[in-house]
Amino acid sequence: MILTAALGLPMLGALALAGSRRWTEHAARRFAVLVSLLSLVCLIWAWLRFDPDGALFQLVEEIPWVPSLGMGYRVGVDGIALAIATMSALLFAASIAYPVDTLGQPRQYYAWLLFLQSVSLGVFLALDLLLFYVFFDLSLVGMYFLIGRWGHGQPQISALKFFLYTFAGSLMLLLAIIGLYLSVDPYTFDMRVLIEQQPLTGTGLYAGLVFLALMLGLAIKTPLVPLHTWLPQAHVDAPGPASAILAGVLLKMGTYGMIRLPYAMMSDTFTRYAPVIAVIAVVSIVYGALVALAQRNLKRRIAYTSINHMGYTVLGIAAAAAFFDEAIAARQLALVGATVEMVAHGLITGALFLICGSFWQRTGEYALDRYGGLARKAPLLTAFTVLAAFASLGMPGLAGFVAEFQIFTGTFAVYPWLAVIGIIGILITAALFLDLLRQLFFGRLPSHLTDFPDLGRAEWGVLGILALGIVTIGVYPRFLLTLIEASSQILVGGR
Amino acid sequence: MLWSVALLPLLLAPLVYLAGRRVGRAGLTLGTALITLATLALAGLAVANDWSGGYRWSDTLALTLDLSTASAVFALVVPLVALPVIVYAGYHESSARLMALLVAFVGAMQWLVLAGDLLTLLIAWELVGACSWALISHRWGKAEIPRDAAQAFLVTRFGDLGLYIAAAAVFAGSGGFGYTDLAALEGGLLHVAAGGIVLAAAAKSAQVPFSPWLFAAMSGPVPVSSLLHSATMVAAGLYLIIRLQPTLSDVGWFAPLAMGIGLVTALAGGVVGAAQGHAKKLLAASSSAQYGLMWLAVGAGFPGVALLHFVAHAFMKAGLFLSAGLAESQVGSYRLEDMRLGRQLPGIALATGVASLALAGLAPLGAAWSKEQIVATANHQALWLALLVMLAGGLSALYATRFQLLAFGRMSRSTREVRSDRFAAPSPSPSEAWALYSLVGMTLLLSLWWWPEAQHWMVEALGLRLPESHPWELVVSLVLVLTGIVLGIALTRRERSSASSRWKSVATGWFGLPTLIEGLATLVVGTSARLARFDDHGLDAFVHAAVMRVRSASGRLARFDDGVVDAGLHRAARLGQWLARCNATRGEVLAEGVPGSLSRLTDWGGRYARQVQSGQMHHYYAGIAMGLAAIMVLLGIGVFL
After folding, report:
1. Is B523 an 8 Å CB contact of chain A?
2. Where are the transmembrane segments (chain B) (predicted)?
């Protein structure tokens, strides 16, 4: 019940907000934060009940729906899903609580956010392919409206581009899911059955096509170069909190999907194509970092670093899939690293995009060269941005390092050359973040920024919680690693 | 327990920052000095009791701390040098943020030297880099300072990548990260790991070709430079190869490479120092050169000698930077030709003179003895190597003399008169002077190294191995040092005319190395700009066109919608209107007329019905049929109404 509660409460909250006209801005925000936090509490409770030494999937709930077609409501978690879902719920609570201009439609804004939280958690908690697909698609709808209605710049075009591009990915995913569904006997959408049976082992072309469709669909969502171009524009025109969720939660659906579907259900095929995926991931790492370095727009720059970081994650997943039985310790390290990267990136980039939202609320500008010298005017904003930037460039003591170190170390044992090329990414990331900090906060204060206010209490409160998460994972990653290792050990075949 | 040595300063640093603004200058200085003293005491306790520490992140990742000879020496020297520097900083800079960062820097450095495995080392290694970035960009208001800080960070981080690769190679070979695992490596992985370690160490300790980052680091305040060069950051690179020398020397190319890098840096740095006109940059070049000598000693197989020279260099170089800072606050710039403060600050000038002589390597100062040991280690390898080391020693005598005479020499009467009109800077505070004197005092104390009893005790206590030395080495060295001093004096005489020759500008700029590094950076930035254009116009254009096509298609659909579907509706609506109008005109007639005619019809029907009650069946039937027809007509009318 606990998982259903976690994903059902936000949906009920969204309905409550949508159903009545009498919500004031303040009440709607407070209610939405409360509901979102309740959902987070449910997941924390699930975390406490999760047994690292137990089965792969725990806390399973199952209600048959159309038994003859193998459809049903099935939810459950392994350590990987639980870690990402909990991070997502935290990020949703933070984004909902972050002050933003709701353009006079607070009720609708918070309702859409809660709806999006519900379906996003659904993606991570579903154990049924069909359910997974439905939630995966519904998340597009939620994000489409958040960008289109509360965005700035050319929100309509950006939202449409986002929707069409990722929806095309979803269609590929649907084809692949049908392909997987038809390969088991009796037909079922139950992920556990598919993971256990590995139905496509040794089916050659058929497996290859299903794998291609799956990976295309998920790579668009992740996104991997060259399927990434929907991302920067969607980010630039989205409101800050929606950007935070887009980067922090929605991108994870791609990489989480890679672990849950192709990696777990067709490990044989994944192993065959792992080198290709790893090369694409390394291209994403270097390309994303280099293109980010050239951006002169604050939000675009951070958006491109997301491509770089998701590249690390995919590299870890590909390295984990590189062999079937050998190098178990290294592959496990890579998979754990990839999962930690998802959690770390969610918190770090979420915080960075919320910060972008604060900049927009104050000046309505993202052009880096319009800023400067804010360190004295806004010390809190400076402190949080420096922390998030250093976390993003992989500074030890913060969450990003724990992830990237494991990914590189694990990958090196499998693909040494790719690891060495990929590691250049952290140098370019360092360059682009130091440059970003310099342009925003150092040097001379331009005259139009003399009234620039520092972070308000609600803003630094939210950022403080995210920062706490980033530091905690950085210095005491054990609580997270125990959870993730339990599942990745089973997935790489070590237990 | 060993964690406390590193964690005490690291955890108290935020407290220094938060409380620092309320307690005033004296309180701030006292507090940070006490923290440093406590760190020193903890380090002493740790060495005495041979503490160690461990902390697990996961089943695979474990952080460990343990003590070796090198780490014990470093762990004691770091707070010992930091203490006077911090006192100086309290009065010279007096910024809570700077003090907090200095304390954190000491903590990160302690962590680095106590690390027992590559993961723990890497964490501290990067933290030290981050601290130095924050320290160098302390005065962030000037546009170029954060740029310099970023350059310093990026060059050293490029080296850090080597450490990442080394850690990964050790894991790939052994499944762990410990120094012992590194020692157990074989074959290609050992070469990769050693290469990574050498790269990281060379970048950190500013060896050729990474030396120029030290010039960029000169944008930081004086206490930062002082600490950075003497006992932290730059020393970290040396520490690493001292600590891992037994393993590294198993790799065939390590010894020649380390000696080569060290020798080239020592000679090049010497020339740069001899030509520099900026007080701090002269000292920075000399740091590179001196660390070059230590690298050579490690490469030649005597890490203990490098360790001793590090100790001597730490105290003497920290002191020299502090006095450069005092000179700067007198004249307002680091240009050596503006200084010549011998008359204004006689005490400071004398103390600096001792440190300068130590840098020059003149007996009987401690640094001279450790330098002679390096000459002896070089002679162990080859005579020409020893001679080149002696030449490097002569160069350091030359630039040390230049520094001393230009910064703290006596100026000619004419310039003094000009000067006295312009400047009325306050003399250094007692705390600043004390900081310098204590560092110089330590430098003097190290003269004990010339005393054989002390040497014997030290070798025993540290378990060192010293090379055999010959008297002629000392003689030749001394001759070269004296030549250097004489040349230095001659150079400073001529330097009054500030003519800058071409070779001088080449030498002061590290022989074009910065241009090389900048060129690389420009290349990367240019590539990134080209890629970004490709991303926008190449990759994205396709998607954008597709979206625009969808939009225009939807626009066309919308027009279709307006023109066809909507028009249909429009027409339907118009039809309705027309029908309504018909209804209004003709319908009225019907609506009025029908009920009237109906009543007349019924009336007529009644009369007729009476007539038709004829009792004849066929009449009845005809009547029913007509009634039915009437009803049908009525119904029909009702439908149309």
Report:
1. no
2. 28-48, 69-91, 111-136, 157-177, 214-241, 253-275, 348-370, 382-401, 434-452, 472-492, 620-640
Helix and strand numbers, DSSP H then E, in chain A:
21, 2
- Residues B252-265: tens digit of each pLDDT: 999 999 999 999 99
Residue A125 · residue A58 · CB < 8 Å:
no
Q: pLDDT value at position A298? A: 94
* B80 neighbors B445 (Cβ within 8 angstroms): no
Burial of A485 (0-12, 13-18, 19+ CB in 10 A): buried
d(CA B514, CA A121): 52
Chain B residues lying within 8 Å of A485, measured CB to CB:
58-59
Q: Which residue does chain B place closest to A430, by CA atoms?
A: B154
Inform me whether the C-beta atom of residue A157 falls under 8 Å from chain B C-beta atoms: yes
Residues of B in contact with A155 (CB under 8 A): none
Quick check: B141 and A157 CB within 8 A?
no
Per-residue pLDDT of B131-189, as tens digits, reads 999 999 998 888 889 988 998 999 999 999 999 999 999 999 998 999 999 999 888 89
Cα distance from A73 to chain B (closest Cα, Å)? 35
Please give the residue range of the domain that contains residue B372: 253-496
- Nearest-CA neighbor of B78 among B53, B102, B96? B102
Q: Is the pLDDT of residue B557 over 90?
A: no
Quick one: B304 and B276 in the same domain? yes
Element at A71 (helix H, strand E): strand A71-77
The mean pLDDT of chain A is 92
Residue B143 has what pLDDT? 83
Touching check for B557 and chain A: CB below 8 Å?
Answer: no
Kindly identify which residue of chain B lies nearest to residue A373, measuring between CA atoms.
Answer: B141
Residue B67 sits in the same domain as residue B207: yes
Note which residues in 278-297 of chain A have CB less than 8 A from chain B.
287, 290-295
Question: Which stretch of A66-70, B348-352, B597-601 has the lowest confidence by average pLDDT?
Answer: B597-601
> Is the domain of B227 the same as that of B263?
no
Task: Give per-residue pLDDT as tens, B408-427.
Answer: 887 665 565 555 545 566 77
**Contact status of B553 with chain A (Cβ, < 8 Å):** no
* A346 in any annotated domain: yes
Smallest CA–CA distance, residue B205 to chain A, in Å, is 19
Count of domains forming chain B: 3
> Domain range holding A410?
272-495
Chain B closest-CA separation from residue A36 CA (Å) = 30
Q: Is B172 exposed, middle or buried (0-12, 13-18, 19+ CB in 10 A)?
A: buried
The β-bridge partners of B65 are B53, B115
ipTM: 0.94
List, for residues A359-401, the tens digit of each pLDDT value: 999 998 999 999 998 998 899 999 999 999 999 999 999 999 9
Q: Quick one: pLDDT at residue B639?
A: 54
Number of structural domains, chain A?
A: 1
Contact B133 A434 (CB under 8 A): yes
Interchain CB contact of A329 with B (< 8 Å):
yes
Cα distance between residue B546 and residue A161, in whole Å: 9
Which amino acid, one-letter code, is at B383?
A: L
Give contacts of A 434-473 with B, CB under 8 A.
Answer: 434-435, 437-438, 441-444
Listed in sequence order, the residues at least 6 apart from A478 whose beta carbon sits closer than 8 Å to its beta carbon are: B56, B57, B58
Same domain for B45 and B28? yes
B482 plus B627 within the same structural domain: no
Give the C-alpha separation, B209 to B515, whole Å. Answer: 11
Chain B nearest-CA distance from A449, in A, is 15
Instruction: Inform me whether the C-beta atom of residue A230 falls under 8 Å from chain B C-beta atoms.
Output: yes
What would the pLDDT profile of A22-48 be if each residue is shown by its tens digit?
Answer: 889 899 999 999 999 999 999 999 999
Question: Is the domain of B436 the same as that of B581?
Answer: no
B165 touches chain A (CB under 8 A): yes
